[in-house]
Amino acid sequence: MSQKHSNGIVIVAAGRGERAGSSHEGPKQYRRIGGKAVIAHSLEAFLSWPGTGPVVLVIHPDDEALLDVATASIAGRRDCIVVHGGATRQQSVLKGLEALAGRGVTHAWIQDAVRPFVDAALFDRIEASLADGASGVLPVMPVSDTLKRGSPDGVVVETVPRAGLFAAQTPQVFALDAILDAHRRAAASGIGDFTDDASIAEWAGIPVRLVEGTPDNIKLTVKRDIAMADEKLARAALPDVRTGNGYDVHQLEPGDGVTLCGIFIPHDQKLKGHSDADVALHALTDALLATCGAGDIGDHFPPSDMQWKGAPSRIFLEHAVRIVREHGGTIMNADISLIAEAPKVGPHRQAMREKLAEILGISLDRCSVKATTNEKIGFIGRREGIAAIATATVVYGRGGA
Ligand SMILES: Nc1ccn([C@@H]2O[C@H](COP(=O)(O)OP(=O)(O)OP(=O)(O)O)[C@@H](O)[C@H]2O)c(=O)n1
Ligand SMILES: C[C@](O)(CO)[C@H](O)COP(=O)(O)O
After folding, report:
1. Which pTM value belongs to this model?
2. Where do you find CATH 3.90.550.10 in the chain?
């Protein structure tokens, strides 16, 4: 059954974070991870989601200034309602729900400020469950460790079957009237040891539907959780730089010239191959494809396919450039080493670099061509073939490859 609803958000942030230990930044919800306070991550996740209505921030009376600093740059922060919490999470949630009442909200989304990795995909799953008529929704992750019950003196008492057991996350979402009533009744009855709102709903007889949580949506509880969250965000902010390499070799035979890096060089030999046998562009094509795991030149242009007979190798390279761009890549640099006894590459090097710059669509200083002989050793030294080694550097955008 589908029903119209409007969402009010309660973000509880009035705890003291004793298990995480103290810091000069204040309790854990004000600690900076990835350059931003934990509570700012959680708040931004909601404010950037279109389904969000009024937001209540439940804070400790001592933390007004910390909240202002932590959320100063967040658009929409000034529209949030700020109330003071209580001595327990349960009491803080009740204060937040009371602040939502009378604001035209049908459903309350109750969120721990200290779950900074909550995401819009989870909101959408919850929303779908509400639209389907759920009166309460709880995001959960199945428990994956074997569970033991221990005695106070540290001895295993029993193994608890884990089938059907889940770890509860937030946001936990309920019809506002029902959960507010349940919280009020629990408080009036002096029951103050509920650690989450789904257990209050359970106590009050409100059916709660499970939806799949998000593995990353962890609660920052101890010091190590905060350090790991910070490292995770620091890693995510690093540019995604990838390097690919490629190698190719073609045999020489009597002829009138070779094409290397797209430049024809008159010579008394030619390179034998299905296409124009430009080893340099072939190696670079492989290097580019390697940066996004897109196979090699043979996968894209099988030698058995007659349409590539005598083809100019720039079309292979252009294809690789397209694939890199489709994966969100920006080519930063291409470097080719040619290994040939002859012809001399030096006089053509500038033209080769210009050709690479044109095909790759990057500046000349990002294109390098080098050459070396093989000191008359081996098949290259005997002028039986020419080889090329290429390296490409590509930066991929987040959400790209
Ligand atoms: N009196 C309280 C206690 C907790 N919370 C909030 O409830 C969430 C989850 O609680 P928890 O991780 O237990 O936080 P703390 O109570 O701060 O941690 P600790 O138990 O280690 O002191 C946190 O966002 C916390 O700020 C709250 O609003 N009011
Ligand atoms: C609400 C909660 O995050 C769900 O897992 C959890 O119960 C909070 O527990 P805590 O005792 O306040 O850490």
Report:
1. 0.75
2. 7-237
